[in-house]
Amino acid sequence: MRQKRKRFEANKWLKHLIEPRHPIYNTIKGKWNDLYFQNKHPITVEIGCGHGAYTIGLAKIFPERNFIGIDIKGDRLWKGGEEAKTYGLKNVAFLRTQVTHLLDFFAENEVAEIWITFPDPRPKTRDIKRRLTSIRFLNLYKAILIQNGPIHLKTDSNLLFNHTLDLLQEKGIEPLNYTTNLYRSSLIDHHFGIQTTYEKRFIAQGMQIYYLCFMLK
Ligand SMILES: C[S@@+](CC[C@H](N)C(=O)[O-])C[C@H]1O[C@@H](n2cnc3c(N)ncnc32)[C@H](O)[C@@H]1O
After folding, report:
1. Would the CB of 49 count as within 6 Å of ligand 1?
2. What are phi and psi of 191, to 5 degrees?
């Protein structure tokens, strides 16, 4: 608890972290490249980024793109914000918000690509609508993505993976790529060898990693 409080306090001084007290928090919608990144590079968003390992990893590999990690948990985002500062990354931001409020922060066509990394599987039937690949979330992603902007999902959850494939089928969408075992697949290069905090845990437990890439129509 004390560590969480310390991190919340430290977050006030992290320039990469856009949270409610930040001056641009309420005005950033549609202006990420003008107000924050100050370039015209395409934006990749990571949904439920936790400690931000994936956002940081991608930002280091692709300096010509901008990356925004989104999560509701400030103490987790602290880690990403600290790393962005340590590595002096200018193409990274972390945004603290509920994903349900995505449209308050991004305009139509503002995002080029989305990664959803190890979302909570929410196995209970009553929680289906809270899965980050449920229809209401897919509709939010569609509203901010450019046409044909890819969405990538990495998960340890067979249930969430199959649920997402079923939803796509219902919508008549053919996935671009998928595998039920990323580390034994020819698609392995698609994740650029970056492992998130949760992914490392799951791999240590011997779990297989599912990967799916699709575009919304
Ligand atoms: C299982 S963790 C995975 C974290 C990270 N992607 C990783 O792989 O290490 C899921 C993350 O999603 C975040 N999350 C879940 N639902 C969310 C929502 N509706 N809005 C914002 N963040 C959410 C949680 O706070 C948590 O950090």
Report:
1. yes
2. -105, 5
In this structure, the number of other CB atoms found within 10 A of the CB of residue 117 comes to 25
Catalytic residues: 120
Bridge partners (DSSP) of residue 113 are 44
Q: Give residue for tokens 């002096």.
A: 88
Instruction: Compute the distance from residue 87 Cα to the ligand 1 centre, in Å.
Output: 23
User: Rounded to an integer, what distance in angstroms lies between the CA atom of residue 213 and that of residue 179?
Assistant: 9
In contact, 216 and 173? CB cutoff 8 Å? yes
- With tokens 């922060």, the residue in question is 105
Total residues belonging to the chain: 217
* Ordered alpha helix ranges (H), the chain: 2-11, 53-61, 74-86, 135-144, 158-170, 197-204
User: What does the pLDDT look like over 171-204, one tens digit per residue?
Assistant: 999 999 999 999 999 999 999 999 999 999 999 9
Determine the straight-line distance between the first and last CA of the chain, rounded to whole angstroms: 44
Asked if residue 37 has pLDDT above 80, the reply is yes
Q: Could you give phi then psi for residue 22, rounded to 5 degrees? A: -75, 140
Domains and CATH numbers, the chain: 2-215 (3.40.50.150)
Which of 68, 70, 103, 118 has the most ligand 1 atoms within 8 A of CB, as the residue to mutate? Answer: 118
